[in-house]
Amino acid sequence: MKWIFPCILLIGFSSFANKHEEHRHHGAHVHGAATLEMAFDKNRGTIEFETPAMGILGFEYKKLKEADKKKLKSVTDDFEKNFSKMISFDQSLQCQFEKRGIDYVLESEGHAEFSVVYSVVCAKSLTGSQIQFDFSKYSDLKKISVTALVDSLQKSMELKNGKGQIELK
């Protein structure tokens, strides 16, 4: 059983790495789209959110103006303080979020990505529960592809206009 969580994370992260590598080679960069990937083994997991910076910041270039720096700080602060409201688990699970990273990454093609990674520890397994999503504050995000790996369960869905829920049953 101890090998399940590393395997789930490996699958999730290799999928993420493959998408990122494919992105670099083929130039696929879709403004208004984001990916949200989560992998959990029992009560512990990782959540990764990634989107072209344009969809969440309104810009993606190297030389940031003062107004851009303020916007980046504001959005970063929002994801630090409110990520557990954007992705909310059943309260009975008592999930605690720990930020691992929030980054604005400029790529060689002149595009930029905004990415967020959190570790999550809950009092109980997520199996049988529901996850609520609310990214509606970011109206330029039109489509968020969600993949959830929870123990042996895999669920995928697409959030439109930033809201939705997924049943982990």
Short synopsis of the structure:
This protein is α+β, with helices and mostly antiparallel strands and 169 residues long. The chain contains three helices and nine strands.
Structural notes for this entry:
- The protein is of the alpha+beta class.
- Helix content is 29%, strand content 40%.
- It contains three helices and nine strands; from the N terminus they run αββααβββββββ.
- Strands 4-5-2-1-7-8 form a six-stranded mixed sheet, with helices on both faces.
Q: For the terminal residues, how far apart are their CA atoms?
A: 20 Å
Helical fraction: 25-40%
Oligomer: single chain
Radius of gyration from the alpha-carbon trace, in angstroms: 16 Å
Number of helices: 3
Structural class: alpha+beta
SSE string, helix = H, strand = E?
HEEHHEEEEEEE
Q: Could you tell me the mean pLDDT? A: 85
How many domains?
Answer: 1
Largest sheet: 6 strands, mixed
Strand order of the largest sheet: 4-5-2-1-7-8
- Spans of at least 5 consecutive residues with low confidence: 5-11, 13-27
Query: How many E strands?
Result: 9
Shape: elongated
How much of the sequence is in beta strands?
35-45%
Summary tags:
3 helices, alpha+beta, three-stranded antiparallel β-sheet, 40% strand, six-stranded mixed β-sheet, 169 residues
